[in-house]
Amino acid sequence: MEKSLDTFISDSHLPTVWLQADAISNNQLKDIKALPCVDRVDAKTKLLAKVDLKGDSEKYLTLESFDESSKKVITVDKGKNFDNDSEGIWLDRNFAEKNHLTLGDDVSLVIANQTVHFPIKGLVESADKIYFTGSIEYLAPNSKNYAYGYVSENALAKVTKGRTTYNAIDIYAKKDDIRHDIEEILGEHLLSYDNQKTLTEVSEATGRVGQIRNLSYLFSFIFILLAILAMFTTIRRLIESQTKEIAVIKALGYSNGQITWHYISFGLLVGSFGALAGAAVSPLMSLFVLETQKTMFTLPDWQIAYSWSSLVVILLVIFICTLSAYLASRQVIKGLPAVFLRGKTKKVHHVFLEKVSLFWNRISDESKWAIRDAFINRVRVLMGIVGVAGSMMLLIAGVGMPISMNHLVDKAYNTDFSYAKRLTVANYNQAAKTYQGQGVQINRAHFSKDDGYNRLLIIVSDGDFVNARTADNKAIEEGGIYVTNRFAELAGIKKGETLKVTPYQDGKSYSFEVKGIVTSETNQGAYIRSETFEAAGGKFNPQTLLVDKNVSKDDIKNDQNILSVINKSDQEKNAYDFVNSLMSVFLMIIGFALLLVIVVLYNLGSLNFVERMRDYATLQVLGFSKKNLQLITMIENLMTTSIGWILGIPMGIWFLRCYVATFSTIRIEYTAYITWQVLLIASVLVWVTSAITTLIISHKIRTINMVEALKGVE
Fold first, then answer.
1. Cβ atoms 664, 485 nearer than 8 A
2. What is the structure's pLDDT at 714?
3. Who has the most CB within 10 Å: 26, 90, 466, 478?
4. DSSP state for residue 413 in the 8-state scheme
5. Where is the ABC3 transporter permease C-terminal domain positioned along the sequence (predicted)?
6. What pLDDT is stored for residue 713 in this prediction?
7. DSSP 3-state assignment of 83?
């Protein structure tokens, strides 16, 4: 995915900075071009149009003019290349496919209450719209209802009757932090300023690459751990089952080094075969991951690519398997041939718990045996605990991620906001008289202090639809400004401080006391009541009206004052679609977590069984039944699982918080939502898997041949 994305971006010569303003004069263009770090400036016109298509939902299109430089950023998938003399439109390919539009079809657009028709000349993908949502109110792309399109400046001039003015600029510069210079040049005309780190259409894609990369590192670590454990236990079991053969070849004069090399070569051979087999299968896994992302991101070519690090991983796996085989065999094969024929005996000793007579005398003989064995084989028990704890950690993350994200969606659209529709209006006063609702003005703003990025300033009138609350559960009130939690953390803003705010489209600076920290995860920035803003000298000029479900589609259908309509139900569904697009990744985490606990417990249990076969036979001679022996095995696994489970809970909570935070962006904060259901599901999966593995191991005890196990020299 990183290769596909980097290729698309580099081949497209993506701009460094994107600007939008209400109007840009020629003098302002000259001033921007004169900045020392600016190499090139491309001015264009951008308009929002309503698409006149039959259907139940409103459809909108961001219409832009193109020039010669646009041809590098935009890829024409089908149809004719850009033509400056053409009066047609080059349309978003995803939108065209989902609405069954083809080359040559006419697209009817409503611009400023005027209907215009454009024939489709081509279907395109743009490098600066890889993750195109169409509106900041959506978390994920909504290609069926939101699109982008390009027309020539000549065609656009006919629509606007020659009154076209530039209102957007693409800047190619040596650095992406020219915000202060741009604010001085454009002043109150500036609407938005974005670079490649903040433009959602690009940053979401590059951010997702980082998220998947971190996940790949995690999986690599897990499988390397499994490789170490599997190889170590396999070699130990192999040696235990070949003690007589080892005794014979020792008697024939073979050295310890030669015998050790035999087992090392086993690790080398198996490790090499496994690494190469994994490399052969890896494209299937890569394809699976890429398929999960195709619904979210628009790229012309999805290609599987591997770097030199992949070869390093293969060599590392082979080396680790070889090293594990060496460590497993180097001490075990030492000794005289007679020792191997007789069978090695373990050194036993008392444990400190035996001194606690009140406890020791009350537990069963099976429990005493299991406890002694655990203290004798501390490394093996520790490996089991680490495996179970790691599995519990991953399960909490795998189960908790979708629950945390779904909680964010539910909180955002049912608690923080309770409107039914968002109406974007041309004249707010007229709309407020027609529909009862709550006015909201949303501006990009430069805050001092800040975290280096522009944030949203959300000015709200009196109403019941914006219900975001502070950490101490207080509503947004008059008398100060309220900063969202993530913005406050990144910028170091604290309650009681004075915050300077310069809203775009205003140009003036205002100072407000930070009255609270809002726990809203969406719309990162600051909230303020309109009364407070106006008291400071600002002008409340909202373009959004929040209304309830009593305002029907028929009421607003023919109202020319309404520019666009967003249903909260559509926003909520869109957000859930985003979470569902990641479900396959979360299921992978759960699957690998279960695999971890199965491999760890089974391998350690099998090694324990092979090493103690003579002990089990001896206990049978002393009167222990096979049920007693099975109980010993169960107690040992119960202790290992219990300790690992207990340690895994805080580890899992910590890991879930860290991993959820990696999905946070400039405009959204993802936080872990840990419930008893998350811990219960993860715990049940760990314990059920552990129980099944224990039953499989304990069943082997029934196969012990007591006479064969106690045989010494034949």
1. no
2. 47
3. 90
4. I
5. 218-334, 588-705
6. 44
7. coil
Rounded CA-CA distance 669/662 in Å is 9
Asked if residue 344 has pLDDT above 60, the reply is no
H helix runs in 492-535, sequence order: 530-535
Question: Degrees (nearest 5) of the Cα angle 194, 197, 200?
Answer: 70
Burial-class residue 709 by CB neighbours within 10 Å (0-12, 13-18, 19+): middle
CA 326 to chain CA centroid, nearest Å: 39
Average pLDDT, rounded, for the chain? 83
CA 608 to CA 602: how far, in whole Å? 10
Distance between CA atoms of residues 123 and 80, nearest Å: 9
Write out pLDDT tens, residues 449-459: 888 788 899 99
Please give the Cα distance from 667 to 139 (Å, whole number). 10
Phi-psi label, residue 452: left if phi above 0, alpha if psi -120 to 50, beta otherwise: left
Alpha carbons within 13 angstroms on the beta-carbon side of residue 606 total: 18
Helix (H, G, I), strand (E, B) or coil at 492: coil
Residue 419 CB neighbours (<10 A) = 26
Which residues have C-beta within 8 Å of that of residue 347, sequence separation ≥ 6? 376
Q: Is the separation of the CB atoms in 167 and 46 below 8 Å? A: yes
Residue with tokens 């591997």: 306
Residue among 457, 245, 206, 229 nearest 340 (CA): 245
pLDDT-based confidence at 419, cuts 50/70/90? Answer: very high
Map residue 616 onto helix, strand or coil: helix
Could you give the 3-state DSSP secondary structure of residue 293? Answer: helix
Cα–Cα distance list, 114 to 90, 108, 419, 519 (Å): 20, 10, 30, 42
- Residue 247 tokens read as 């005794």
Tally Cβ neighbours within 10 Å of residue 376: 14
Closest of 671, 657, 655 to residue 485, by C-alpha = 671
How many residues in the chain? Answer: 714
Q: How far is CA 220 from CA 137, 147, 276, 278, 623, in A?
A: 37, 39, 15, 12, 47
Give residue for tokens 């975001």.
Answer: 468
Contact by Cβ (8 Å): 400, 655: no
Note if the bond before 449 is cis, omega within 30 degrees.
yes
> Looking up tokens 């994107």, which residue turns up?
18
Q: Does pLDDT of 363 surpass 90?
A: no
List pLDDT tens digits, range 652-705: 999 899 888 888 888 888 888 888 999 999 999 989 888 888 888 777 777 666
Per the CB < 8 A criterion, the answer to whether 545 and 431 are in contact is yes
Give pLDDT tens digits for 464-516: 899 999 988 899 999 999 999 989 988 899 999 999 999 998 878 999 999 99
